[in-house]
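1st attempt posting a full record on here, be nice pls
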Amino acid sequence: MHLSPDSIIIFQVGLVKVNGTLVFTWLVMLLLSFGSWLVTRRLSTGAEVSRWQSLLESVVTLILGQIKDVTRQDPRRFLPFLGTLFIFVGTCNLLSVIPGFLPPTGSLSTTTALALSVLVAVPIYGIADTGFGVYLQNYVRPTPLMLPFNITGEISRTLALAVRLFGNVMSGSMIGGILLAIAPLFFPVIMQLLGLLTGIVQAYIFAILAAVYIAAGLKIHESQVSPENNATPETQ
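the predicted structure (as tokens):
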């Protein structure tokens, strides 16, 4: 039994290996791309909409509401990134109920790549709000001695985000494998049903944590801009 798709080598050419993680990731990407095209090809602004459009609008509205509750800002600017994270992780976890499919999120390389995306997104949103120079100044406040600690905090936060998702998905696979060996007719069905629920929960937690990190970075940078710096000559 393979608990991680990294252990499955599809083919190898020299030093280049294509393992199960890559193949399953490509399958999820193709499925999401085709599904997006299928749902959005006939969007309607009238009173009558298709069931797929209603489902899409419900999902988007739900994600926008959650982002707004966390960031307290216009959620539309964060929707492409955070929405993609949630849908990708959720789809990977939900497809794990299909026999033979191993979720890419059960690979530490995948969860690390997703966490690195969050690590890059945080300064991108911060720089877009405050500018490059002002953003970098926050790493040396209140003293330049804080620079290594701030950098270490960013890296450790990213590592924790990757390991958390990997550990939760891996533990679910291990428990399912153990129960499958003990009682192959009854417990696996229950575990698959629980897996559907926990898969969505893990996707939600990952996306929410990403939103929290981005919102925390924006609030820190906004708090650094004091009213005195924004005061006009008349108010001074």
